[in-house]
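Retry 2 of 3 after timeout on previous attempt. Resubmitting structure tokens to design endpoint.
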């Protein structure tokens, strides 16, 4: 029982917290844009890297939790779970005032899941269980 609790606190709790933070900020209505079209384009473009970073980090945390829970295909599970979470979060935003669902954002969420893979591979080689 102690090992289960330690595993939950050490590896899964950060996943739950990060996913909850994503959900919390996604539930906030965005203020009405009162800026020019060029400025709005810049903000939209700069928003995409945030999706990549946020969902890349969630993928890393998820992989770490799956890996330390002895899942055989932990990288694939992490990508699948986070991609589904990201798509669901985009769908949820459709119902939030001032927000909208975006396939482009869901795509950038998936890109974040994929781009983090080399770092996960390096991390897993450095800290592999022996």
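Retry 2 succeeded. Sequence:
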């Amino acid at each position: 029982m102690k090992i289960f609790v330690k595993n939950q606190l050490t590896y899964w709790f950060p996943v739950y917290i990060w996913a909850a933070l994503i959900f919390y900020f996604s539930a906030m209505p965005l203020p009405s844009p009162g800026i020019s079209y060029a400025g709005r384009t810049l903000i939209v473009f700069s928003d995409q890297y945030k999706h990549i970073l946020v969902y890349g980090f969630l993928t890393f945390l998820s992989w770490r939790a799956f890996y330390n829970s002895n899942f055989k295909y932990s990288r694939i599970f992490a990508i699948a779970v986070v991609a589904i979470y990201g798509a669901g979060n985009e769908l949820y935003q459709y119902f939030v005032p001032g927000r909208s669902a975006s396939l482009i954002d869901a795509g950038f969420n998936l890109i974040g899941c994929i781009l983090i893979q080399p770092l996960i591979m390096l991390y897993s080689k450095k800290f592999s269980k022996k």
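Attempt log closed. The chain is about 75% helix and 0% strand.
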